[in-house]
């Protein structure tokens, strides 16, 4: 870019891991035992912060003690929701190896989301390296029990101290980490969904496909309303056709028996209203790989179809009545998969089979295959090695 | 509410102005001269802060030196956009009287918006009193030149330090103030709008009618895209009918000549996608009062209709072709009114008459009537007296 004052060409700095400044925490904390862990409530000793300005680009990264940020009350993030985040996890294998799961997907989505609200983009590989450094520093915070992990929360906020609505002239990227236990304590428990027609999560032409902060707070009241009616989460619908889109803050999968008897794994296609989830992509990739590299337990590949296509509530109701609705499950980083046993829709409940295990066979297989790759039981190039 | 630990009934405290703690700024600043004022860039010596917790309710308010907030990096506002704001102005009349303009409307909307994302509500009258105290303390920051005012920005954020998506268990309400000059320096300048079909600001079932932070950052890129095509702002459309909704961050008015020759002032009705603007309401109230209390310059009331009804781009195009499109203007607290002279739509420009003054007669009259009431030239019960 050209400096408007000097007329000289200025190079904006990208994130540079070699410049990282590390300040160890002089008062390291004590990780909670597994049974006291609760999602996103305790944090590790350190955080990564990288400031940005529109004139200089990204400043030197800093890993320093976890602690409060100082923000002017005029910071745009507090007024206009110039904010976005990612969620990924670090896993410790039985052998002690530490890996991240597909961080390249998070980095790509984070950059895509940043562009959508005019926040700065960056070299995703560089940020991944810095996250790996942070995880290594806080390695002792990664719980070692099965199903546990270290949840990593990269966040990017606009910090301009002026109230005009426009591209923020400064920003702060920070990464915090929180040890988490299994989403389901004591085995899988299927949830009930309320198919919402009163509220929409996202609309065509809107921001639903971006991991923007703005997509989350508006979902709190609809969730409470669903809970008051006895449902755990919302099943977000779209359009007068009542197309299924997402489940709470997860992507959605439906398993149907097709007209020809084949098993169909269906998820809505990526468009304006669907978040491109890493777990969603992993489920699709695994299911599609079955044709060339068979996965134990899945139907023979000639009887198994993977379909990204719109699916509506009337179709779901019809499939249920014809006993062709086999499974419904959510997919996301926090729960990996989340089986559904009941969907409230227009005053009636659609019951979804879950069997004795609390989840259908496809859901269970996908869980096994993904967890296997996250924990190193199944070798995979989805694992990014933080420490051998 | 019942305390979950003790079983005792607990009363949550509302905002109580009598508890206010005042800490004067030991280093008061110097207000900028009028020509250096720029919207929302400089702030007064003090700010009002009122913390809230779900167990205690609102704590004692504090007026203290303007300065940074300390927020944990896990504060939900930075991740999920649990944030909302209001905008109102304090005006100094020729006689030195200081008033706010219809603060009751802002308080009502702020409470309604807070409920939408499960942030705490409060006694609007109490907050208005505290804002008045803040304005009195920073009185010297209210510019005295015509068209100037003190912009007041109440903001409410969720401050819970845990990453679960749910009702925030703590919050912070703060109010900051910024001296502002006239929106249009050197007379009115009409703007060009790009009627957008690519992006939507809001959709039925969504959050467009709430003054949530989440509605603002997503508008930045569409605005930049409009600017690259030579338009100042977006004209946000809705539905396949291309109904007009809002202009940038303002409400929208259209003036038409009706089939019978009468003048029609049209604005979209309040629904899911329209923000209930204070200026919008003021324009409507004034226009409707014309029947009983004639306003100089408006057509005779028998030839003047005020209509809250949907209006679409095809209707606008048709009215333009039939020379029945008389005026288009935006209405909001920052600009009061904002005349429009051109609307880009599906690759063509619709030209809107603005005359020599840069704004049509209805727009000009509304500006005169509202400014008159804001500055005390026209007596009005819309003025809330901060200081006689």
TrEMBL record, chains A, B:
The modification N6-(pyridoxal phosphate)lysine is found at residue 211. GO terms for biological process: L-leucine biosynthetic process; L-valine biosynthetic process. Its EC number is 2.6.1.42. It comes from the Eukaryota. It comes from Dacryopinax primogenitus (strain DJM 731) (Brown rot fungus). InterPro entries: Aminotrans_IV (IPR001544), Aminotrans_IV_CS (IPR018300), Aminotransferase-like (IPR036038), B_amino_transII (IPR005786), BCAT-like_C (IPR043132), BCAT-like_N (IPR043131), BCAT_family (IPR033939). It catalyses: L-leucine + 2-oxoglutarate = 4-methyl-2-oxopentanoate + L-glutamate; L-valine + 2-oxoglutarate = 3-methyl-2-oxobutanoate + L-glutamate; L-isoleucine + 2-oxoglutarate = (S)-3-methyl-2-oxopentanoate + L-glutamate. NCBIfam families: ilvE_II, PRK13357.1. CDD domains: BCAT_beta_family. The keyword Manganese does not apply. Its cofactor is pyridoxal 5'-phosphate. Keywords: Amino-acid biosynthesis, Aminotransferase, Branched-chain amino acid biosynthesis, Pyridoxal phosphate, Transferase. GO terms for molecular function: L-isoleucine-2-oxoglutarate transaminase activity; L-leucine-2-oxoglutarate transaminase activity; L-valine-2-oxoglutarate transaminase activity. Belongs to the class-IV pyridoxal-phosphate-dependent aminotransferase family. This is Branched-chain-amino-acid aminotransferase. GO terms for cellular component: mitochondrion. PANTHER family: BRANCHED-CHAIN-AMINO-ACID AMINOTRANSFERASE, SUBGROUP IIII AMINOTRANSFERASE.
